[in-house]
Amino acid sequence: MDIKKLSIDYGYFMAIIVVLFTLLLGVVVVSRKSWENGLKTQVMNTFEQVYPGTYTVGDMIPVQHSLSTSAAVYELEPTAASLSVSEETGYGIIIRTATLFGTLPVVFRYSVTSGTEFIGIVGFSRQIQKESAIIQTLEHSFQINRWKHRIPLLVQDSISGGNH
């Protein structure tokens, strides 16, 4: 084999690799908005079970933290009907959490004055007895309490643009 033919073959191979990575990157960029909207819908559905008609889920806040692949933060705005109950603006957080039941997406509410509150698990209904029992079991678990303490830092870092 001569070096010229090997160089040409290597060049073709590298060109194919570059094209494949470019296509993959394009798919990721195009699907990002759809992914964000899906998470937003899941956060809204989970909030509706606990606080029906109280909040609307706003824009996603980019997570400026090492947990950015496992968490998403959304602005929560009180609805006009709930303003009379003096609901404050806060944040809805969805986090992928390891539990005894496997990895589950868990939703929290955070505000500066009220702190962090566990809302529920995405896709679990508080109306179904078995799912409600799982939610109640997790509500006081070590994992949920750990996130309750870490969420204020996560949200503050995301708002301020800090990075850990």
Polypeptide structure, described:
This protein is of the alpha+beta class. Helices cover 48% and strands 26% of the residues. The longest helix is centred in the first third of the chain and has 48 residues, at 3-50. The N and C termini lie far apart (51 Å).
Give a nutshell description of this structure.
With 164 residues, the protein is an alpha+beta fold. It contains three helices and five strands.
Summarize the main sheet: 5 strands, antiparallel
Assembly state (oligomeric): single chain
Could you give the order of strands across the largest sheet? 1-2-3-4-5
Please write the string of helix (H) and strand (E) elements: HEEEEEHH
Instruction: Compute the average pLDDT.
Output: 84
Set down the secondary structure blueprint.
Blueprint: H1 3-50, E1 55-61, E2 71-78, E3 90-99, E4 102-111, E5 115-121, H2 129-139, H3 142-160
Antiparallel strand pairs: 1-2, 2-3, 3-4, 4-5
Name the features.
alpha+beta, 164 residues, elongated
